[in-house]
Amino acid sequence: MKEILRLDFRNMLRDTVGRHGATPAELQKPGRQALRYLQELKEERSNGQHQFLDLPYQKEVAEKIKKLADELRSWMTDFVVLGIGGSALGNIALHQALNPPYHSQEGKSRGVLRYAPTPRIHVIDTIDPDLFAGLLETLDLKQTVFNVISKSGATVETVAQFLIVKEMLKKSLGNAYTKHIITTTDPEDGALRRLAAKEGYEKLCIPKGVGGRYSVLSPVGLLSAAVSGIDINALLAGAAEMDLQCQKETVEENPAVLGACLQYLSYKKGKHITVLMPYSAALKAVGEWFCQLWAESLGKKFSVKGKIIHCGPTPVKAVGPTDQHSQLQLYMEGPFDKVITFLAVDKFKSRVKIPLSPETDFEYLSGHTLAGLMEAERRGTELALTQAGRPNYTIYLPEITAFHVGGLLYMFQVQTALAGKLFGINPFDQPGVEAGKVNTFALLGRKGYKVGATE
């Protein structure tokens, strides 16, 4: 069995960090509950619920996407994702983790898999007019494809982007414009799907039971990944391997169960902020993706029994060593309200050695590598937090490959689902977000909507 990740949680225990840590006895109760909820999750899955859990096994969909990606790469220079939230953050996480730095800025050939020079990838998760207009000015529309992603087909930001792009394409390309639009939306209904059928756009489907923040391993994330040369078979294989690990029925052997228990127990002990801090620039956007997954899934007013509880740990993204110089002071000496999760990488793709220096003040760096320096900084930060009684734990990735990233993302999704059950809330809805959408529609003058009303 190929190792995907390993989890070191010793710095969460009272023996290590003192009174802010947990005892083995305190871990037992949520551990037993989480294992019961794991069985519940399995039963719900067998009844057709939580379809995101089955995404690693969509072989026919993956083959269709790879074929489409090959065709697009034969003539396209730029691939633009129009989407927001779950339709964008997973794409960004995959590209930042698995493509070389500055790939989309330079568009150089990378010799990935069997493909020719790879297109630039742009994920526009904003309606900021300057940013949006600035991108459009850089594109040759004859060689650009726009992937419009919205499960409902009515996401106001994405619809606005789409209408602008559609008009530009029609003016520039005439009737040939439809070749430059791909929709990823509901398989059965919605305004975007109806329009795609009417005008003849290429269509990909988001499975019915898969919400946006759980959709990264669906066509939402797979198409742009395949277009850029990411091995989506390896991505799904890593998720499938993690699925097996997440079936294990002991707390210590199941990383999703263990992570959910640690986070839940920390919250109950007053640690209402969870910091995800990768020591890798490539994993920075994984932190951003995690923040949506965690916040939108667990931030709830009502329990599943209808009781008002105002639950939810607040996710914070940090990146090392950068945020040692901005946030760490707060983590070290501020309130005892945080648990820090480090993401560490055993092996980086590049080996950059620090040269020997004749300056005696810098002798200690001679012969080390940048990766070694970064790990020393991570370990130093981990040790300092532990000595200060600040709970923390580390998730180690052997390396950053499609296989390992697929497993990591899948693990976080299962962890979130189990944490939701521990908190007694529904981790698959987002009523607070929907309320904001209703107000937006009302302010824009959409018929049938009033400010302060519910949909």
Summarize, please.
The chain is of the alpha/beta class. It is built from 16 helices and twelve strands. The protein has three domains: 6-44 and 235-430, 3-Layer(aba) Sandwich (Rossmann fold); 52-232, 3-Layer(aba) Sandwich (Rossmann fold), CATH 3.40.50.10490; 431-455, no CATH class.
CATH classification class of the largest domain: Alpha Beta
Distance between the termini: 48 Å
Average predicted confidence as pLDDT: 93
Q: What is the fold named in CATH at topology level of the largest domain?
A: Rossmann fold
Number of strands: 12
Number of helices: 16
Model description:
The structure is a single chain. With 455 residues, the protein is α/β, with parallel strands linked by helices. The chain has three domains: 235 residues, Glucose-6-phosphate isomerase like protein, domain 1 (Rossmann fold, 3-Layer(aba) Sandwich), CATH 3.40.50; 181 residues, Glucose-6-phosphate isomerase like protein, domain 1 (Rossmann fold, 3-Layer(aba) Sandwich); 25 residues, no CATH class. It contains 16 helices and twelve strands. It has a five-stranded mixed sheet, sandwiched between helices. A five-stranded parallel sheet has the order 3-2-4-5-6, sandwiched between helices. Strands 8-9 form a two-stranded antiparallel sheet. Helix 2 packs across helix 11. The radius of gyration is 23 Å and the shape is globular. About 2% of the residues have low confidence.
